[in-house]
Design a protein that fits this description.
Order of helices and strands: HEEEEHHEHH
Distance between the termini: 64 Å
CATH topology of one domain: Butyryl-CoA Dehydrogenase, subunit A, domain 3
Strand order of the largest sheet: 4-3-2-1-5
Mean pLDDT: 78
CATH architecture of one domain: Up-down Bundle
Structural class: alpha+beta
Strand content: 5-15%
Length: 224
């Protein structure tokens, strides 16, 4: 029962992380415009994402435009494109492998072993996808913070952390947590299998003890 609860919890957490990864990859709120100094009246907000940048004017209308070329992006956003696509594919693959591992609940000894390998593979894929997602999110966040406190950068070019980065951290944590849950489930299956198929210890019964005693008495009388 505990193993079944671990499976369901791992699949739910992994599904949340996978959906969050897809959302982060498509969201334009990676880098948002920073309003500092004496700029009180705000007329427009600038969003910069992996695929497009948007301008929202006075909370009324918003215009988005896809980047004309990949070379127009900064190096951190260029690398983030590939890493986030890889993380999305890995999270989806891990989710599908986890579903395949959950289909058989009661199997023979060989099937239990195969199930453990499938669940372990899903857990490792979840952890790998979470680590791949953390790299671009932390990289972009570090670049934004460094430019914000850099006095050589123009005030109009400074940005703040967008909502996509915070969601990316949460999604990566969910993916890593799901991988840890599935790895723990694989460990529990290994212990259960070893315990279930251990050979029982046979103790001599009372009749066997009497039979051996009679045989030993008969042998001594024959010898005499």
């Amino acid at each position: 029962m505990v193993s079944g609860a671990l499976q369901i919890a791992g699949l739910l957490v992994g599904g949340i992380g996978m959906i969050g990864t897809f959302a982060v990859t498509g969201m334009p709120q990676w880098r948002v415009s920073a309003f500092i100094e004496n700029n009180i009246i705000v007329f427009e907000t600038i969003w910069e994402g992996l695929w497009m940048h948007c301008i929202r004017q006075a909370n009324i209308r918003m215009q988005c435009k896809v980047y004309d070329s990949v070379l127009a992006l900064s190096p951190d956003l260029q690398a983030s494109r590939g890493l986030m696509c890889a993380g999305s594919v890995l999270s989806f693959l891990a989710f599908m492998v986890a579903i395949i591992g959950m289909k058989c609940t009661r199997c023979a000894q060989s099937s239990w072993q195969a199930k453990g390998y499938i669940i372990l593979t899903a857990g490792l894929l979840f952890i790998l996808s979470g680590a791949v997602e953390l790299i671009p999110v932390c990289w972009v966040a570090n670049t934004i913070i460094s430019d914000f406190y850099n006095p050589m950068v123009n005030v109009a070019q400074k940005r703040e952390l967008g909502e996509a980065l915070y969601l990316g951290w949460v999604a990566a944590f969910c993916l890593i947590a799901a991988g840890a849950i599935f790895c723990c489930f694989c460990r529990c299956c290994q212990k259960t299998r070893n315990y279930g198929y251990s050979a029982p210890t046979h103790y001599p019964t009372h009749s066997q003890h009497l039979h051996r005693k009679n045989e030993s008495s008969y042998s001594i009388s024959q010898y005499v």
